[in-house]
Amino acid sequence: MTSQAASDGVAAAARTGDRLERFWVGPTGELLHAAYRDGRWAEPENLGGRLTSAPAVAAWGDEPMEVFAIFEDGELWDRYWDGTSWHPWESLGGALQAGSTPAAAAVGPDRLDVLALGRDGQTWQRWWDGTEWVPWRAISRG
Length: 142
What we know:
Layout: H1 4-8, E1 10-15, E2 19-25, E3 31-37, E4 40-41, E5 45-48, E6 56-59, E7 65-70, E8 76-81, E9 90-93, E10 103-108, E11 111-117, E12 122-128, E13 133-141
């Protein structure tokens, strides 16, 4: 069962060519996705998972994008779109507050940041440096 917070959020990413990507949590905690192209929304697709947070998404370039969510284990999980297909869910770890919503931003093709609220009340950050995910670091309280 998902928390109320998980079912209340939606994330979106703008794409080139008047395209949009929309992500939300389904009725049993799975991540749903729909793309807007050529003036209409595609049928939603189920990307799986057991989310306890609303999703966050970051897109860079013409195709790549990554979606993040907190799962029932209190860890941050992500899925990556490479322009052709979705890669499987991957845990990025952390000790995060279930129900809180992560935030994500792409500075460029070699830098992707994600922030989330920890169980300790601090904001925690991880980033992709173009080669690997840098370990979590606390950046502030609350």
